[in-house]
């Protein structure tokens, strides 16, 4: 299966989880997602998701000025974001368990 | 974690400006929000060895992930909300959903399999429409004559080929990814093809040259046609009467008679009905003249050989000949003598 399709559904969750651990700016979040194993995630997808979560009130943002170059924009999680993370994490676990239980015992054996 | 001191790179700046341009349709706040920090992030990425891709793809991905509408969609949607194109799209998708329903799909499969028949039919309709438009009234027939021998058949072959090629998507406006102009042209052409025959008077006997059609179907068609044109023709048992032939009590043919009904209305043949046969055998009944008014009530109507149209000028009528009586004579009838002879009309009774 195309993992980018799978990613689309859980990118919110993954981004929230990463930011919840520690505030970060766009590229920082991207690197942590990729470092965590989501190697195929696109940078624009992550940046767009950050902006959307911010617009929805799940994240706050603050700019760290730079004298020599463009400003960095950091994101942090809000209480609403934590609620969303908890809810979606629960849904994800339940969903993943359900799908796993449907799979044949020897994983990777697709017919 | 990272060093916040870095220099902006011109390629990154240019890339971000291009992306900004591609987001120009968004309001300022949304756009700034979307682009805030992007230059810094991209500079980091490039510094780490990443490559800047296509700005358009990038902008689209950014939009999509941010839950914003696509640029083209949004533009087109705004232009055409409620436009004929979107109306057509909605109608099409509704139609597709309808024919995909489990109890409709098998029937639709049959109908879809008959599409080639429609391609042939609409070609015939097109040529016949040309025939009707090109000349005077002509009985609608399987092979339109167009007044020139062979021309109708030739046009029919060409028209069928063109119609089929359009149907198969090989010829504009039926080709591949259809523009809205092509779609509307196709819709209009098919609509005309469906509606055009309704404007024709279709005399069923001439239709296929067969009286097998004169049954119930004919009644319906005639009824429809009659409603269309107030002038009803003369019928006998559902068949059109083209001409009338009179015989006297002794069974001898009589020429030059006029008949009226109980109210004194003359019995006439509708001019269109006076035509029989095709090609060389085509005969058109000619009227008598009351001043400049042609009247089809003097029987039997003389018949002219015209390639097309009606015998409605004196010049054409001058070429007319007496038609042969269908029967040389009839058996004489008893009691005929008593009624024979001149009558004084109602006042004489």
Automatic annotation (TrEMBL), chain A:
Instruction: Specify the superkingdom.
Output: Bacteria
Enumerate the PANTHER family for this protein.
Answer: PADR-FAMILY TRANSCRIPTIONAL REGULATOR, TRANSCRIPTIONAL REGULATOR RV3488
Protein name as it appears in the record: PadR family transcriptional regulator
**Domain annotation Transcription regulator PadR N-terminal: ranges:** 15-86
Q: Which InterPro entries match?
A: Metal_resp_DNA-bind_regulator, Tscrpt_reg_PadR_N, WH-like_DNA-bd_sf, WH_DNA-bd_sf
UniProtKB/TrEMBL annotation, chain B:
State the UniProt keywords alphabetically. Answer: Membrane, Transmembrane, Transmembrane helix
Locate the transmembrane regions by residue number: 119-137, 149-172, 184-202
Q: Where is this region: Disordered?
A: 263-285, 316-349
Query: Chloroplast: present as a keyword of the record?
Result: no
Indicate, by first and last residue, each region the UniProt record lists as having compositional bias (Basic and acidic residues).
Answer: 270-283
Q: What is this protein called?
A: DUF1707 domain-containing protein
The source organism is Nocardioides panacisoli
């Amino acid at each position: 299966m195309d993992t980018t399709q799978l990613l689309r559904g859980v990118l919110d969750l993954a981004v929230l989880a990463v930011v919840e651990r520690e505030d970060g700016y766009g590229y920082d979040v991207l690197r942590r997602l990729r470092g965590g194993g989501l190697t195929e995630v696109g940078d624009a997808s992550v940046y767009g998701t950050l902006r959307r979560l911010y617009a929805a009130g799940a994240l706050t943002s603050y700019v760290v000025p730079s004298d020599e170059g463009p400003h960095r924009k950091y994101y942090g999680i809000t209480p609403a974001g934590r609620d969303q993370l908890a809810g979606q994490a629960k849904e994800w676990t339940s969903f993943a368990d359900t799908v796993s239980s449907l799979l044949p015992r020897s994983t990777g054996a697709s017919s | 974690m990272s060093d916040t001191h870095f220099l902006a790179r011109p390629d990154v700046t240019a890339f971000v400006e291009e992306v900004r341009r591609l987001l120009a349709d968004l309001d300022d706040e949304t756009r700034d929000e979307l682009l805030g920090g992007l230059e810094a992030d991209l500079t980091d990425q490039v510094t780490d060895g990443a490559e800047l891709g296509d700005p358009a793809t990038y902008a689209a991905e950014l939009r999509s992930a941010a839950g914003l509408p696509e640029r083209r969609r949004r533009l087109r949607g705004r232009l055409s909300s409620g436009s004929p194109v979107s109306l057509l799209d909605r109608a099409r998708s509704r139609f597709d959903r309808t024919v995909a329903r489990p109890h409709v799909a098998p029937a639709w499969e049959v109908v879809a399999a008959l599409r080639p028949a429609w391609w042939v039919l609409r070609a015939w309709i097109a040529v016949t429409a040309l025939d009707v438009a090109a000349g005077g009234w002509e009985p609608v027939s399987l092979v339109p004559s167009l007044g020139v021998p062979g021309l109708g058949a030739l046009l029919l072959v060409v028209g069928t080929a063109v119609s089929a090629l359009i149907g198969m998507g090989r010829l504009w406006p039926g080709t591949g990814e259809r523009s809205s102009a092509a779609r509307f042209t196709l819709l209009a052409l098919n609509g005309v093809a469906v509606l055009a025959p309704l404007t024709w008077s279709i005399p069923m006997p001439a239709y296929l040259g067969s009286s097998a059609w004169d049954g119930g179907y004919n009644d319906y068609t005639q009824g429809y046609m009659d409603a269309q044109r107030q002038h009803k023709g003369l019928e006998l048992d559902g068949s059109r009467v083209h001409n009338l032939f009179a015989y006297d009590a002794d069974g001898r043919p009589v020429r030059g008679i006029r008949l009226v009904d109980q109210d004194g209305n003359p019995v006439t043949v509708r001019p269109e009905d006076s035509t029989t046969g095709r090609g060389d055998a085509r005969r058109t009944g000619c009227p008598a003249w009351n001043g400049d008014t042609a009247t089809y009530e003097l029987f039997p109507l003389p018949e002219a050989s015209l390639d097309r149209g009606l015998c409605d000028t004196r010049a054409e009528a001058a070429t007319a000949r007496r038609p042969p009586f269908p029967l040389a004579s009839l058996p004489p009838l008893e009691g005929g003598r008593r009624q024979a002879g001149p009558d004084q009309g109602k006042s004489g009774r």
